[in-house]
């Protein structure tokens, strides 16, 4: 945060009445939930304990809001009693006390994939919103009016965007999405006042740069290698390091044209947020050809490992493995599967799984666990300092992978067929990788993220439309309610007027729950 | 920006409009197969030597991934480049007619469309690609370690199975069939047992449809016992134990039936 100090002064005047102060970004999320994950760490752990294991059974509906939209996949921000949330092309500001709409903004996009939107970022009085046609729009948080918009990438090439921008100092960090087309991924830092590019870091190195040796020479593979920056990363203000999970390489299932590890796809990278320079990397899936991006939130926390206090970062990755690293150096500490996988021959000296080429997609089909939808996916994980457990919404998912490409592959070059899936919420002991408890949430693929609190409660959803409150220490169910639809969302919580609310979105509805008000 | 609740309906309608516009665009972009074929021949004879016959690049760039092609509409971007060439990069100009340019554009757009549609396995996926196993070994597995013969019979339910499904569907159904819904017996605190077809089961509720066709449900904490009989359970239990050789051998065996 070297660069944040002078900005704090300017914010004292800039955001005197409402708006988001930069110092709110480094506090525990209680009366403010200022970023996608609540804070920079990605823990999705709230220090609020008004709702706790002894009283969560009394939770009651506080208010509901209907967006009349496609399913809400964003996590709302909460700043000064106002919630800000999104679906593709749309932003809402809603009163966090009552659920009444304050304003709604609609963006008319020029095509682009409308698969989802994870929410807005905020800085001072301004919101930052990414669009399906891969633009960044800045809105006035007071009324939703547009301040400016800039293009991030060319939608005609297959770029789109879904993520919630992350504010670090005077940088708006934005990522891009893509799927079928063979385009290079990147991460941008943009000027919060103008949207002007400050730096761009491509997820594939330029030919000749470190990492380029993991791509074939004399080929266009490295310049069309994918590696999208789908999900909001995390940040350590003391180390001034930005952590980001990088997407899978392209062509997606057909890897023959890109022999090598294909850095920095399917990697966790640490960047200097002021310069965009790479500091370290770790690659959960070297040479992926199963669509197992490594974009799952890399959670920052401190804890003991093998008797020593460490600065840690951990990811439960889409490929089925849990990874624990030292976040100062990227040094690998632990690798353990959190579901049964059958695609790796072992773990190498770097702590990275050794891919079994026989489990690559094959013309006659290869039976693989997990399937391309992953052992987990965009669903937010959580870490509770109270229990010392890392929580993930996991899937046992079997699928058969076909390689259909003949000649030079373009796009996916194959597909897998899901065979069956069942899902769980799992608590991982980060020190050993052991599954401390596993709570079944039903057949099919879980789609809901996790929130933990100092009240000892874990909130998430099951595959039967229920919102669950579990005991975070044991996984035992404490409370549930059928919300009428599945949730593609991650719950959040906030304190307002001394009352703790738990917010949960299902379909196009937002529900908030609280303990019964004392009249 | 709007500030009225009434606008929520218009938001809803916009999504409907968006879905229709996407469908319409897809229909509008479907290329004329005859133009694509004329364009392919033209491309192979004039362009394939450098760009590859399938346009995926050779000594000259891959055009499936080309920004110019992706921005082109009916040859409006490609035409000038084809006619003028790119002398600085060694590409000569070609004196194509408007019709030839439109055809080549149709071919290139068809190629990019193929890439966009590449995340799938065609329904008519050829048997020859799937038939890599050993039918005798599959038969042995079927009757032995796989335990398939406990429920299935080549002379009974599987008779003529290879003619009932496409090869791809047969492989999928073999691994993860759609089958009869599970049945369930719910034992009530009184000791009475209610049987039926399972309608729903989660951590909290169980529901069935009884022999009379009535739907009945209970909170799980209000019943004594729930016994589910899922006829497909054996398929799921087998899956983690299957090797790829098992999969291909059983498939080869089923293809003989």
Task: Explain this structure.
The complex is a heterodimer of chains A (519) and B (257). The relative contact order of chain A is 0.14. The model of chain A is unreliable at 1-16 (pLDDT under 50). Chain A has one domain (4-514): Quinoprotein alcohol dehydrogenase-like superfamily (Methanol Dehydrogenase, Chain A). By secondary structure, chain A is mainly β. Chain A contains one helix and 36 strands. With 257 residues, chain B is of the alpha+beta class. Chain B has helices at 7-29, 33-46, 48-51, 67-71, 78-84, 98-116, 127-130, 135-143, 161-164, 167-175, 233-238, 244-254; strands at residues 183-187, 193-201, 205-210, 215-219, 225-229. A five-stranded antiparallel sheet of chain B has the order 4-3-2-1-5, with no helix packed on it. In chain B, helix 2 packs across helix 6 (98-116) and helix 8 crosses helix 12 (244-254). Chain B is elongated, with a radius of gyration of 29 Å. The chains are: A mainly beta (519), B alpha+beta (257). At the A-B interface, strand 6, strand 27, strand 28 and strand 29 of A face helix 1, helix 4, helix 6, helix 10 and helix 12 of B.
Task: Based on the model shown, name its key terms.
heterodimer, A: 519 residues, mainly beta, Methanol Dehydrogenase, Chain A, five-stranded mixed β-sheet, 1 helix, globular, B: 257 residues, alpha+beta, Cytochrome Bc1 Complex, Chain D, domain 2, SH3 type barrels, 3 domains, five-stranded antiparallel β-sheet, elongated, disordered N terminus
How would the global form of chain B be characterised? elongated
Q: Compute the gyration radius of chain A: what is it? A: 22 Å
Low-confidence stretches of chain A: 1-16
Strand content of chain A: 35-45%
Helix and strand layout, with pairings?
The complex is a heterodimer of chains A (519) and B (257).
Chain A: H1 4-14, E1 45-46, E2 60-66, E3 77-79, E4 82-87, E5 90-95, E6 101-106, E7 121-123, E8 126-130, E9 135-140, E10 146-151, E11 166-168, E12 171-175, E13 186-190, E14 197-202, E15 234-236, E16 241-245, E17 268-271, E18 278-282, E19 299-305, E20 308-316, E21 321-326, E22 332-337, E23 344-347, E24 353-355, E25 366-368, E26 382-384, E27 389-403, E28 414-429, E29 435-443, E30 451-453, E31 457-461, E32 466-471, E33 477-482, E34 492-496, E35 499-506, E36 509-514
Parallel strand pairs in A: 1-30
Antiparallel strand pairs in A: 2-36, 3-4, 4-5, 5-6, 7-8, 8-9, 9-10, 11-12, 12-13, 13-14, 15-16, 16-17, 17-18, 19-20, 20-21, 21-22, 23-24, 25-27, 26-27, 27-28, 28-29, 30-31, 31-32, 32-33, 34-35, 35-36
Chain B: H1 7-29, H2 33-46, H3 48-51, H4 67-71, H5 78-84, H6 98-116, H7 127-130, H8 135-143, H9 161-164, H10 167-175, E1 183-187, E2 193-201, E3 205-210, E4 215-219, E5 225-229, H11 233-238, H12 244-254
Antiparallel strand pairs in B: 1-2, 1-5, 2-3, 3-4
Helix pairs in contact in B: 2-6, 8-12
